[in-house]
């Protein structure tokens, strides 16, 4: 059984306008209703998170590969659960998603996917990218894409720290915003 949340989600009758607007779009996800207990920080954070998730320059597949690999590295079940579904919607297969929990060489990733996963792995392990990893990425992404990929991976590391430390619990599996299955 999962540990109890350290900070429970904010009851709906205490939501501010920012949290109400986010929940109207996404549903009352625990990530939002928990972080919404700090309204000023939540309002600042949701802009960056929304930009990276919905308005970024990276393709959906690239974004979800990076997020799921980061969720794996940070052992963040909440991130993994949500982005598993988003990964499938972005064109990842169940086999590919399962392979994200293993060594890069255990799956025949194409060179572009392998470069993204290497970036996530190196940033996790060392906090930076080596020249070879950077060169692989620079062959695939423009300046904006390079900046965004590094920021995306860093953002989801930070979010995983918060979700794990606060013990944010997944939503119930039968909730409509969760797609009804896991």
UniProtKB/TrEMBL annotation:
Cell wall biogenesis/degradation is among the record's keywords: no
Protein name per the record: Alkylhydroperoxidase family enzyme
Swiss-Prot/TrEMBL keywords: Oxidoreductase, Peroxidase
Biological classification of the source: Bacteria, Bacillati, Actinomycetota, Actinomycetes, Streptosporangiales
Keyword Oxidoreductase appears in the UniProt entry: yes
Taxonomic source organism: Actinomadura namibiensis
Family annotation (PANTHER family): 4-CARBOXYMUCONOLACTONE DECARBOXYLASE FAMILY PROTEIN (AFU_ORTHOLOGUE AFUA_6G11590), CARBOXYMUCONOLACTONE DECARBOXYLASE-LIKE DOMAIN-CONTAINING PROTEIN
Residue span, Carboxymuconolactone decarboxylase-like domain: 39-122
One GO molecular-function entry: peroxiredoxin activity
Coiled coil regions in record: none
């Amino acid at each position: 059984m999962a540990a109890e949340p350290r900070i429970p989600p904010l009851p709906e009758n205490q939501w501010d306008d920012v949290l109400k607007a986010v929940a109207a779009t996404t549903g009352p996800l625990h990530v939002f209703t928990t972080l919404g207990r700090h309204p000023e920080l939540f309002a600042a954070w949701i802009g960056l998170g929304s930009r990276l998730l919905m308005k970024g320059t990276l393709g959906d597949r690239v974004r979800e590969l990076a997020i799921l690999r980061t969720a794996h590295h940070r052992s963040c079940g909440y991130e993994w659960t949500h982005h598993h579904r988003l990964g499938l919607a972005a064109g990842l297969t169940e086999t590919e998603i399962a392979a994200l929990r293993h060594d890069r060489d255990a799956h025949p990733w194409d060179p572009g996917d392998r470069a993204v996963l290497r970036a996530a792995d190196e940033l996790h392990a060392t906090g930076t990218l080596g020249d070879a990893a950077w060169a692989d990425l620079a062959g695939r992404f423009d300046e904006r894409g390079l900046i965004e990929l590094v920021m995306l991976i860093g953002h989801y590391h930070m979010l995983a720290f918060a979700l794990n430390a606060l013990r944010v619990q997944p939503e119930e599996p039968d909730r409509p915003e969760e797609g009804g299955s896991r």
